[in-house]
Design a protein that fits this description.
Helices cover about 35% and strands about 20% of the residues. With about 220 residues, the protein is an alpha/beta fold. The protein has a 5-stranded parallel β-sheet with strand order 3-2-4-1-5, with helices on both faces. A 5-stranded mixed β-sheet has the order 6-7-10-8-9.
Amino acid sequence: MSKLYIVPTPIGNLKDMTFRAVEVLEQADLILAEDTRTSGKLLKHFEITTPMQSHHMHNEHKMVESLVNKLKSGTTIALISDAGTPAISDPGFLLTRACVENAIEVECLPGATAFVPALVNSGLPNDKFVFEGFLPVKKGRQTRLTFLAEETRTMIFYESPHKLIKTLTNFCEYFSEDRQVSVSRELTKLYEETVRGTAKEVLEHYTNKPPKGEIVIVVAGKK
């Protein structure tokens, strides 16, 4: 029986790839990649020739059993996502759970993930926080926002640029216009920026300057 490695990859800056991550990907028998085209560029950059197989949210349910069998037969598998740490708002949980249930060793390497630098540089309390990932798009959104309006810990959300205005508007409505918010986008990339202020101020900023790139929103808890 072999091992499943969970391998974080850079969220933008290739220099954030660790030596150990490169070594594991080189030595694995198979790499599971969320998008083989995206990961192919990463592997080419680091001259890694390990075979890849597609593993994403649309096929992971169907693949779990066969992957567990491969691991039981001695195949070493490394799991990566397009960026960051797998299973954090990305595929990875189902396979990890199946490995644990089948007594297959799982090892997760430390490495890049977007919400940690966004939280740390927000200036908001980070001794206790809750990671919410993406809010429901439609069903359950109001219920979740109503519940989170009473959350006293710092909250972290992922959001796409075209939905940022809607989400900030919701924060003004459900949390109050004065709630402190920090929006980080394009972390580790050339045009990285963090905009901090009240929910109303940050909403006005991005209403006048439509955002681009990957976004992490950090919101102060209720006082």
